[in-house]
Amino acid sequence: MKTQALKYAIILGLGTGMTGLVNPAAAASVDVAETIQNQISEAQAKEIALKQVQGTVTKVELETENGVPVYEVDVKAPDQLYEVTIDAKSGKVLKVKKEND
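Predicted structure:
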C-alpha cells in the first residue's frame, strides 16, 4: 500500500513539474508575438528598400545580426543586384551593398 501511494506521489509530482515547464513556453510565445508587433512588416521593408534602389525586389529575409532583427532585401536594378539591410524595429536603412553576380 505504501509503495502504491509513493508511485502516485511521484506521478503527481512529475505532473506538477511538467505543468511548470509548459508555462515558460507560453510566456516565450507571448514575447515572440510582442516582438513581431514591434517591428516593421515585410511589405514596409520592401517599400523602404525600393526608396534606396530602384528596381525589383527578388528576395526578403528576416534575420538577426549582432542580436538585432534586420530585413535583408535583395533588389535587382538594371545594372546590378543590391542588398539593402534594414533595422526591423525602426525601419532605418543600415547598409546598401552591391552584390557580386
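Summary: The beta strands are 56-65, 68-76, 81-87, 93-99.
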